[in-house]
Design brief:
239 residues; mainly beta; Pnp Oxidase, Chain A; Thrombin, subunit H; 2 domains; six-stranded antiparallel barrel; six-stranded antiparallel beta barrel; 50% strand; globular
């Protein structure tokens, strides 16, 4: 059952949310490691964040990614028990869904230069998104201009004259070209990192992660990334 997994493999877990597409709040990530592999369960270290132990409850359901070499496998799991081995706290995971090889095409990044408008989403607009699954056409907060310098189906990097607090939820507008047609994107994202550029104190480097976006939006961004990569390879070959 667990043949692809290895002891010592990295583990990423998220609290399972059955209404994920209706929630704009960022999910907390739990980082762990495989300690033992049994016949019907996987023993992992209890997560630690900045040196602080995060004790997860027995019965909690998690969406889990298991890293094994160059491959990633995911499954829904439940914490069946907790324990301690020496001075290491552990949790035992049982699968709810079969282990499946995770396709990570959405994480291929493309260096680019795309203009973007970025707007902070307030509580009412978050509620609208939660209810309808789409962002309001008009947002109350003013938009800020930025330049997207790399993009993937999972997020993007923005250079702007503005710094954001971590976990700020924003709406990002930009346009990509796919198969000769323009596609206007209007997507919710959260700030995962925002810092001042060392060579210019007025410019900030912002890293964003898309949240709860539609599968067709992810697929279109992935298509854009691969089309641009193919175009650049052809250009290098002089085709």
């Amino acid at each position: 059952m667990f043949e692809p997994l290895v002891i010592g493999g990295k583990v990423e877990a998220y609290k399972k949310n059955t209404s994920l597409k209706e929630d704009v709040r960022p999910r907390e990530q739990f980082l762990s490691q495989i300690m033992d592999i049994k016949d019907e369960s996987i023993v992992c270290t209890m997560p630690v964040d900045k040196g602080k132990l995060i004790v997860l409850e027995v019965g909690m359901e998690l969406e889990v990614c298991f890293y094994s070499g160059k491959n990633v496998y995911n499954a829904d799991c439940v914490i069946s028990s907790r324990g301690k081995e020496g001075n290491i706290f552990t949790m035992e995971l049982k699968l709810i869904t079969p282990l499946k090889k995770f396709q990570r095409r959405e994480y291929y990044r493309l260096e680019c230069t795309l203009e973007a408008d970025v707007t902070i989403i307030d509580e009412d607009e978050s509620a609208h998104f939660k209810k309808t699954g789409s962002l309001p056409d008009v947002l109350s907060m003013p938009s800020e201009k930025g330049i997207i310098t790399d993009i993937s189906g999972g997020g993007l990097r923005l250079i702007m004259n503005k710094q954001y607090e971590k976990d700020t939820v924003v709406a990002v507008k930009f346009t990509i070209a796919i198969g000769g047609r323009k596609r206007d994107m209007y997507l919710p994202a959260r700030i995962i990192l925002s810092f001042r550029k060392t060579n210019d104190e007025s410019v900030f480097d912002n890293r964003l992660q898309f949240i709860n976006i539609k599968s067709e939006d992810t697929e279109d961004i992935v298509k854009y990334v691969f089309e641009q990569q193919r175009f650049m390879r052809q250009k290098e070959r002089g085709m």
